[in-house]
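Bumping my old thread because nobody answered last time. Still need a sequence for this structure:
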């Protein structure tokens, strides 16, 4: 099924995968975006701080369901795709998401002890007074596994698999280059999730390079008389809307001095949860 690429693969077409895209979007929202919310909302007595939280179980389910859906998506590609690259990407994805599960679990549980995500590890009041000071290095290592190594091994293969699938979403039939109403309805939630993924995961460079690669491929295939099918259009337009949402997000928080301090440099894209602990959490405390 995933052998060498054949010339006739280019001329195969595929209907819009409403079931897969719907399940993919739903589980992304519930199991990824919803896991820290579930951890905060559900009573602490149900999930003691020394045990896995509800969000951790959400993360475990995500680590199983997402690679399964990605494999099913690859299987439905009208073009034969490189099997070895897909398998290595899925294995790396699962390993990276599992590393992130542990680091993210501890980091989010620290919120109940007063940890503030808009501050660096060493600037957090509950961390900087730890004795001996080598404990701070341990927390920085945990943060590295969570925010850097885990994210890299999770998101790089994730976007790579999406791009590999995207390479097979071309057709010579112009009539098939349109999206059904269901695709238009799913585009909003899908784009909003990708915005959260890019901003919270701090992976703008990875996202923008993937988007530029998509644009280059579209222009290259257009010279051959090929256009995107409904699945390719759905993915491509979702990435375009995501870029617009990121621009609005950055413009809104452009003059936030505290977030500017945490996210220095040319690329300034604050994390939503850093914004929450800085502004929304303080607002809730003031109301109480």
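Sorry it took so long. Here it is:
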């Amino acid at each position: 099924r995933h052998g060498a690429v054949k010339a006739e693969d280019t001329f195969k077409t595929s209907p819009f995968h409403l079931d897969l895209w719907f399940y993919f979007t739903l589980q992304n929202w519930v199991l990824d975006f919803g896991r820290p919310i579930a951890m905060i909302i559900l009573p602490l007595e149900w999930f003691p701080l020394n045990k896995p939280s509800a969000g951790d179980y959400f993360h475990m389910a995500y680590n199983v369901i997402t690679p399964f859906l990605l494999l099913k998506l690859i299987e439905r590609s009208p073009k034969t795709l490189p099997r070895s690259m897909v398998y290595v990407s899925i294995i790396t994805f699962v390993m990276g998401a599992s590393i992130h599960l542990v680091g993210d679990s501890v980091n989010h549980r620290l919120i109940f002890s007063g940890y503030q995500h808009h501050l660096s590890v060493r600037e957090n009041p509950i961390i900087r007074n730890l004795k001996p000071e080598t404990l701070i290095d341990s927390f920085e290592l945990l943060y590295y596994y969570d925010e850097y190594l885990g994210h890299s091994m999770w998101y790089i293969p994730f976007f790579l698999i999406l791009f590999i699938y995207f390479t097979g979403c071309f057709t010579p039939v112009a009539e098939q280059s349109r999206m059904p109403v269901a695709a238009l309805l799913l585009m909003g939630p899908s784009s909003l999730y990708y915005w959260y993924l890019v901003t919270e995961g701090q992976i703008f460079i990875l996202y923008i390079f993937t988007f530029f690669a998509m644009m280059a491929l579209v222009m290259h295939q257009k010279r051959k008389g090929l256009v995107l099918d409904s699945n390719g259009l759905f993915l491509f337009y979702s990435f375009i809307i995501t870029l617009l949402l990121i621009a609005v997000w950055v413009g809104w928080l452009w003059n936030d001095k505290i977030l500017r301090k945490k996210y220095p440099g040319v690329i300034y894209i604050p994390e939503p949860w850093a914004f929450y602990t800085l502004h929304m959490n303080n607002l809730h405390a003031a109301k109480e």
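The CA atoms of residues 135 and 182 lie 51 Å apart. Let me know if any region looks off to you.
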